[in-house]
Design brief:
Helix content: 55-70%
Number of helices: 46
Distance between the termini: 93 Å
Strand order of the largest sheet: 9-10-11-8-12
CATH topology of one domain: Rossmann fold
Strand content: 5-15%
CATH architecture of one domain: 3-Layer(aba) Sandwich
CATH class of one domain: Alpha Beta
């Protein structure tokens, strides 16, 4: 049990109990008590008897021990002595324990105050020689620890301008060790600053005599120069106090320890995830596994920026972008600085996103493997790209903190695990690994066992925390490198290093290290913590209120301290700790400064996030709106919707109805009609006629998509009435007049009123022709050509579609090049002139994947068949069978392949082709299943396939077919011996 008594062994030995001092009795009970108190733990009776009575028989010594214990417990301050049959313990506070604790936390002032005189100085122990030997060894160890603490305290005093007190303390150290020349040099400097020149020279002369007479040596040259300067009353050039730093190996240990299995697993994997707590070594594991692979970092606070880590990486390596072929323009919409002077063609709504994913994948394809770090902060688009790269077979490794997994990453992890991507769980280092780490760092064959055990227990085996604790101990002077070894003042006086004290969390460790930086460096890091990475003196200077030169010096200081490297933090835990240590007011101020510095230099969404964190929500909403407009212009409605949902609650003025209308459009393009209707109603609540009209346009498109043509006509009429009251605007892509005209044409087309559709489009085409080639003209001509074709006006249709292709070529409208080429080729096939459309169709096909590309591929394959170029047709059908997004086209392609395979020596593949087609067709509406597939199934299908196809060959199918197909279908049924109603 503990007691309130205190025992002083580094002073005149005595106990203090209830405010009264009690001298330590110079008898066996007193000797027993001081030894037990010093140990502070259970001690075997055998050990105590042998220590105090080593010369007498064991039985007699044990009797003496019982007597001494009885007498000791009679002392008022020693009643807490505990005994059992085999052991004895006395737990109370001692000044020795307090001295060790002060050493452990680097409190040199407190350590010097506690150590008033050497341990048990002049306390009688001669009658117990074994105890006297023990005390002598402990006294020397404690004295050496005190000398180190005194030198550190003298340095602090000198730096504080208290030279007289520093010289007094150093003189006290010399009194115990006159030949400590480094202490003498410090004393000579301090004494000169304190005006004690004569006294200092006397100490030097005595040192020189002792050194010469005792060892036959001369003082070092530096010491002699100091003494000479004192004699000549010259001011001493007091060097700046040496900056306590840590071995460079702590910045990057020479090798990873305890990670052999994980390294092997990653190097074998094409795709893998690494999970583990912050600081456990995930990033180091990546870099060790694949040192040449690009590392794409996701940053906290930027989780809403689409593809942020990828775009940051690409911006840094613009000169290394590979040839993207037809996807060059797609990347240019997202990354215009990659292609100066290039004006990308207009995007196409249905294929902009997949084409952009392909463009990003190709941009990264030169890397053998990609490293995605900190996926817990990845935006949804980056996570989507991970899945896309997986499907392409493009290798990557990703890391994340399992404690910080959000909904988006959770969904992605489930999808990745379903695809067989495994997770390597990185756990804290075991004790033997920490032991090996210290061996590597100290250059020894093995690490110090006791210190290794303490470090592992203190840090939980977290490598980052372990290294930071070591740096902190070095910077505080508690740990030092001496003679190639690491030492602490506690090495000779501790049992388990429990006296060493460091803050219990990383934030505390970082705070202590930051406390040693200059104010300028600290302000620089606080500003940098709001940016995360990519900071520069030019951006940080106005944020920190410093000159660029001062910021550069601050970054250099932080780099020397191991906090930053280049234009980023060494570890995000540094950034987090610094940022979390800022007051709310300081955070808001720095974010506002960042927004102002980055305006016009960074993407508007980045600027918006800084304004939002600064509390300037109106400014944030404006920048979010700018970003959303760009996403919509690039046909990225999902990205636009995310940004606008975030911005709308903070909209000001007319930005509100504009955002609502844009949200309606975004969700409508995504096919999420319920969400679109919600925002349509929100936009209609606003009094702005312009945005009300836009909302009605979106509502008309939604109604058309749902097949509610009569309602669509009414809403369209309402929108037209509003448009009639508005000021006229130029007829161009995005204009309200053009949008309404497209709707009228589309509505007429869906109602089978092709003449009305043409009558709507013809005057628009005429007006747009007078303005020259444009995206709007290309779109109108494609629609007009399709309407002519449905009216049976083939000549006019072909001429209009050819004109559309010419316009699309001039303005770079790739979508209309594909759509127009497809419509033109279909028209020419029906006229038996397919060869005329081949060149344009092949050129359009080379543009890459668009929404209409699969339809173009099908028409081109049909054209090749009519020209008896079956190998070319076979390749195109194969491509559609495996990659067409439209189910009908996939079924049709497999059916065509079933027809062609036997003619090309692939008869064994027919059953597989029909299986693939059947699998897809069974999930389709019956009216959408191509009759060509049903014919192929009846002609070449197996009995098992026919049994599976019962739902497709039901009664009434024949009646729905045009005459030529109906006859072929009935004939095929008859050949298989099946009745017309069902198989």
């Amino acid at each position: 049990m503990a007691t309130s008594a205190r025992l002083y062994l580094l002073d005149e030995p005595h106990a203090l109990w209830e405010g009264c001092p009690y001298p330590l009795p110079p008898s066996r009970p007193g000797q027993l008590l001081l030894f037990l108190a010093y140990r502070g733990e259970w001690v075997a009776r055998e050990t105590l008897a042998g220590l105090l009575w080593p010369e007498i028989p064991e039985e007699e010594a044990r009797h003496n021990l019982r007597v001494a214990l009885h007498r000791a417990r009679s002392l008022p301050w020693a009643q807490a002595v505990e005994v059992n049959r085999e052991q004895v313990r006395f737990v109370l506070v001692t000044d020795v324990a307090e001295f060790r604790a002060a050493l452990g936390r680097g409190d040199w002032e407190e350590a010097v105050r506690i150590h008033r005189r050497p341990f048990l100085m002049d306390f009688p122990l001669r009658e117990a020689p074994a105890l006297e030997d023990w005390a002598s060894l402990e006294r020397q160890s404690l004295l050496e620890a005190w000398q180190y603490a005194a030198k550190r305290r003298a340095q602090e005093l000198e730096e504080a301008g208290e030279a007289e007190e520093a010289s007094r303390l150093l003189l006290e150290v010399l009194r115990h060790d006159l030949l400590a020349e480094d202490v003498l040099q410090a004393y000579l400097r301090a004494a000169q600053m304190a005006g004690q020149r004569e006294a200092a020279l006397k100490v030097y002369d005595r040192f020189r005599r002792e050194l010469g007479e005792g060892l036959g040596l001369e003082p070092a040259r530096v010491t002699q120069e100091l003494a000479q300067a004192l004699r000549q009353t010259q001011p001493l050039a007091a060097p700046a106090s040496p900056r306590l730093t840590f071995p460079l190996g702590l910045l990057h240990p020479p090798r990873m320890v305890g990670r052999e299995e994980e390294l092997t697993a990653l190097r074998r994997a094409r795709f893998a995830l690494v999970s583990g707590e912050a600081g456990v070594g995930k990033t180091r594991l990546l870099l060790e596994s694949f040192p040449e692979a690009p590392r794409l970092r996701c940053l906290e606070g930027l989780e809403n920026l689409p593809w942020h880590p990828i775009l940051v990486h690409l911006r840094r390596h613009l000169d290394k972008l590979p040839d993207l072929g037809p996807y060059r323009e797609d990347l240019a919409r997202l990354l215009p600085e990659a292609f100066p002077g290039l004006t990308p063609p207009p995007p196409e709504p249905g294929s902009s996103k997949p084409r952009l994913l392909e463009a990003l994948a190709r941009s990264l394809a030169s890397a053998e493997r990609l490293l995605f770090d900190d996926l817990q902060w990845a935006d949804e688009n980056t996570l989507e790209l991970l899945l896309y790269l997986l499907e392409r077979g493009q290798p990557w490794i990703g890391t994340y903190r399992p404690q910080e997994v959000g909904p988006a990453l959770k969904r992605t992890l489930e999808a990745l695990h379903a695809h067989g991507v495994e997770t390597v769980v990185l756990k804290p280092l075991e004790a033997d690994a920490v032991h090996a780490l210290l061996a590597d760092l100290t250059g020894a064959e093995e690490g110090p066992p006791l210190f290794s055990r303490w470090l592992r227990g203190k840090t939980g085996g977290n490598p980052f925390f372990a290294l930071e604790v070591l740096k902190t101990l070095f910077e505080g002077g508690v740990l030092r490198e001496e003679g190639g070894r690491w030492r602490t003042p506690l090495d000779e006086v501790t049992r388990d290093y429990t006296e060493l004290q460091v803050p219990p969390k990383v934030a505390g460790v970082v705070a202590r290290r930051l406390g040693r930086l200059s104010p300028e460096a600290l302000r620089t890091l606080q500003a940098a913590s709001t940016l995360g990475e990519g900071f520069s003196p030019q951006v940080l200077a106005p944020m920190a209120g410093l000159s660029e030169w001062a910021v550069m010096e601050g970054l250099e200081e932080a780099e020397q301290a191991g906090i930053v490297a280049g234009n980023g933090f060494v570890h995000d835990l540094f950034r987090q700790s610094i940022y979390q240590g800022l007051s709310q007011a300081r955070r808001q101020f720095l974010h506002a400064q960042a927004a102002q510095s980055l305006q016009g230099q960074a993407p508007p969404q980045v600027v918006a996030e800084h304004w939002f964190q600064a509390g300037a929500h109106g400014e944030a909403a404006h920048n979010w709106l700018v970003a959303a407009r760009a996403y919509l212009k690039s046909s990225l409605p999902e990205e636009a919707a995310r940004v606008l949902e975030r911005a709308y609650p903070h909209a000001q003025g007319l930005e509100g109805p504009e955002m609502a209308a844009h949200l309606a459009r975004s969700y409508r393009e995504l096919g999420q009609y319920a969400q679109a209707q919600r925002w349509i109603q929100e936009a209609l609540r606003h009094p702005s006629p312009r945005w009300q009209a836009d909302a009605l346009v979106e509502q008309t498109w939604v109604l058309l998509g749902e097949g509610r043509l009569e309602e669509a006509a009414k809403v369209l009429q309402e929108a037209q009435e509003i448009q009639a009251r508005l000021e006229p605007e130029p007829l161009e892509e995005g204009s309200l007049e053009l949008a309404l005209a497209k709707l009228r044409s589309n509505l007429a087309f869906r109602q089978g009123q092709f003449t009305a559709s043409c009558q709507t489009l013809e005057p628009l085409a005429a007006r747009l022709r007078t303005q020259g080639p444009s995206l709007a003209l290309a779109g109108i001509l494609v629609s007009l050509g399709s309407s002519y074709d449905h009216l049976g006006q083939e000549t006019q249709a072909i001429a209009t579609l050819e004109e559309a292709l010419q316009v699309a070529q001039k303005v770079g409208a790739r979508y209309y090049l594909v759509d127009g080429a497809n419509n033109l080729l279909g028209c020419l096939i029906r006229q038996g002139r397919c060869e005329e459309g081949l060149a344009q169709a092949k050129a359009a096909l080379a543009l890459g994947e668009y929404e209409g590309t699969a339809f173009l591929r099908n028409n081109l394959a049909v054209a090749y068949l009519s020209l008896e170029q079956e190998k070319e047709a076979l390749a195109l059908f194969e491509a559609n069978a495996h990659g067409a997004p439209d189910a009908m086209l996939r079924v049709l392609a497999w059916a065509r392949l079933a027809e062609l395979y036997p003619r090309h020596g692939l008869a064994g593949a027919v059953e597989h082709a029909l299986d693939q087609a059947l699998e897809t067709a069974l999930g389709m509406d019956l009216q959408a299943v191509p009759v060509r597939f049903l014919l192929a199934l009846l002609r070449w299908g197996t009995e098992a396939q026919l049994r599976r196809a019962v739902p497709l060959l039901q009664e009434g199918v024949a009646e729905t077919l045009p005459p030529p197909w109906r006859e072929a279908y009935l004939e095929a049924l008859a050949q298989r011996g099946l009745p017309p109603s069902s198989p």
